[in-house]
């Protein structure tokens, strides 16, 4: 299916030169004079090679049809990360290179969106916000509740986040999974 280059987003799959690429970043640039362009960084699905491309925003790009479904995380072992589709109970094994940095967020039963092409997982998409528990941080300092400074914290024993000074060990917080940033205290 042909789409214009400016509509490409992270996670889309593009077909170029008979190869498939997953979009890592896509940025539209509109100069004061001249032609607007779209700059895209992609990773080859089969070989893992990163490629940068620049198109005019109105240029047609071949977008591959990808099956996207919700899956629940089950467990990880030497064969990879295992997910289950909640309706049909089909299981899917995903390799380490596809999971990448998102592995720190995977907890038992977490619902994620997996993109597959010909039965092989090519991309994972986490929920935008997750609730985690602070397991390690500096002690709460009295009088710094309204300060704009942040301190480092470890959540669920693996995720590193900068939190406000009033957050202590055992506090449940909501974080943004795109940039590991603190959003708010959990309301549960």
Automatic annotation (TrEMBL):
Location of the Elongation factor P C-terminal domain: 130-185
Gene3D superfamilies: 2.30.30.30, Nucleic acid-binding proteins
Broad class of the protein's primary localization: cytoplasm
GO biological process: peptide biosynthetic process
Protein's UniProt keywords contain Cytoplasm: yes
GO annotation, cellular component aspect: cytosol
SUPFAM superfamilies hit by this protein: Nucleic acid-binding proteins, Translation proteins SH3-like domain
InterPro entries attached to this UniProt entry: Elong-fact-P_C, NA-bd_OB-fold, Rib_uL2_dom2, Transl_elong_fac_P/YeiP, Transl_elong_KOW-like, Transl_elong_P/YeiP_cen, Transl_elongation_fac_P, Translation_prot_SH3-like_sf
Domain Translation elongation factor P/YeiP central: 68-122
Subcellular location, record wording: Cytoplasm
TM regions (residue ranges): none
Protein keywords: Cytoplasm, Elongation factor, Protein biosynthesis
Pathway per the UniProt entry: Protein biosynthesis; polypeptide chain elongation
GO molecular function: translation elongation factor activity
Function comment: Involved in peptide bond synthesis. Stimulates efficient translation and peptide-bond synthesis on native or reconstituted 70S ribosomes in vitro. Probably functions indirectly by altering the affinity of the ribosome for aminoacyl-tRNA, thus increasing their reactivity as acceptors for peptidyl transferase.
UniProt family annotation: Belongs to the elongation factor P family.
Full protein name: Elongation factor P
Organism this protein belongs to: Pseudorhodobacter antarcticus
Taxonomy of the source species: Bacteria, Pseudomonadati, Pseudomonadota, Alphaproteobacteria, Rhodobacterales
This protein's encoding gene: efp
């Amino acid at each position: 299916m042909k789409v214009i280059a400016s509509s490409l987003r992270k996670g889309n799959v593009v077909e170029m030169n008979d190869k498939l690429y997953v979009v890592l970043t896509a940025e539209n640039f509109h100069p004061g004079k001249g032609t607007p362009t779209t700059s895209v960084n992609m990773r080859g699905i089969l070989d893992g090679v990163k490629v940068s491309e620049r198109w005019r925003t109105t240029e047609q790009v071949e977008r591959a049809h990808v099956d996207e479904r919700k899956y629940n995380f089950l467990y990880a072992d030497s064969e990879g990360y295992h997910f289950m589709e909640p309706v049909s109970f089909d299981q899917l094994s995903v390799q380490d290179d596809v999971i990448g940095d998102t592995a720190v967020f995977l907890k038992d039963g977490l619902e994620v969106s997996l993109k597959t092409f010909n039965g092989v997982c090519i991309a994972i998409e986490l929920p935008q916000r997750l609730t985690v528990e602070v397991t390690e941080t500096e002690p709460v300092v009295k009088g710094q509740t309204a300060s704009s400074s942040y301190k480092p914290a470890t959540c669920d024993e693996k995720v590193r986040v900068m939190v406000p000074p009033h957050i202590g060990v055992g506090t449940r917080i909501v974080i943004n999974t795109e940039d590991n940033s603190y959003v708010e205290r959990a309301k549960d």
